[in-house]
UniProtKB/TrEMBL annotation:
The lineage of its organism: Eukaryota, Viridiplantae, Streptophyta, Embryophyta, Tracheophyta. It comes from Platanthera guangdongensis. Residues 36-177 form the Peptidase S9A N-terminal domain. Transmembrane segments: none annotated. InterPro entries: AB_hydrolase_fold, Pept_S9A_N, Serine_Peptidase_S9A. Belongs to the peptidase S9A family. Gene3D superfamilies: alpha/beta hydrolase, Prolyl oligopeptidase, N-terminal domain. It holds the Pfam family Peptidase_S9_N. This is Peptidase S9A N-terminal domain-containing protein. SUPFAM superfamilies: Peptidase/esterase 'gauge' domain (SSF50993).
Length: 198
């Protein structure tokens, strides 16, 4: 059965209005209409591959996170959002706590056998980021669908290739974009994004 866009829209409006927190959300939307920070427009053209693309907000790019004008503008935006969302702060904190309580914080990914090692990722309780690890394969068995990485006292020592928790120190946000392991080698290539603490 095909549902028209109008019916779909009515359904979502009904769900939104039946939410017990709809009055708080409406209050936030009204506050957001207040006096938001307005970024200036500075014409900028980028030419690539014969195309020209205009970006009036290119001036906001600051890879060093040190431009005082940009930092001031971003603080204004954040302050406006914080003020607008005051009415749902308690609800937001409760929702976050419920979601976090359902997550197994100390967990391990399924190991992948590559070359002479098992590669996997681990998370630790109370930590925000991932550990990229490997263990040496000590037996002579060939790879199969029934591979099980040995763990415990008799297992090969775990090698932490990259601890994102250490790399993220001093930054508000840290994200690995690409993590490439060069097989049969100790070399690892990592491309990451760090957001400065301002």
């Amino acid at each position: 059965m095909e549902v028209s866009d109008e019916k779909r829209e009515q359904f979502f409006i009904y769900i939104a209005l039946s939410s017990p927190n709809v009055h708080r959300l409406h209050e936030c939307c009204c506050r957001l209409r207040g006096n938001p920070a307005v970024g200036k427009k500075v014409p900028h053209e980028m030419k690539m591959f014969g195309d020209v693309c205009g970006d009036d907000y290119y001036w906001l790019r600051d890879d060093s996170c040190s431009n005082p004008e940009i930092l001031s503008y971003l603080k204004e935006e954040n302050n406006h959002t914080d003020q607008a969302m005051l009415g749902v702060k308690q609800f937001e904190d409760g929702l976050f706590a419920k979601m976090r309580a359902r997550i197994k914080e100390d967990d391990i990914s399924v190991p992948i056998r590559r070359g002479s090692y098992y590669y996997y990722e681990r998370t630790l309780k109370g930590k925000e980021y991932v550990l990229h690890c490997r263990r040496l394969i000590t037996d002579d068995t060939s790879a199969s669908a029934h591979d099980v990485m040995p763990m415990g006292p008799g297992a090969a020592e775990e090698h932490v290739i990259l601890d994102e928790n250490i790399k993220s120190q001093g930054h508000n946000y840290y994200s690995i974009w690409a993590f490439i392991r060069l097989l049969h080698s100790y070399l690892t290539s990592v491309t990451c994004l760090q957001i400065c603490p301002q």
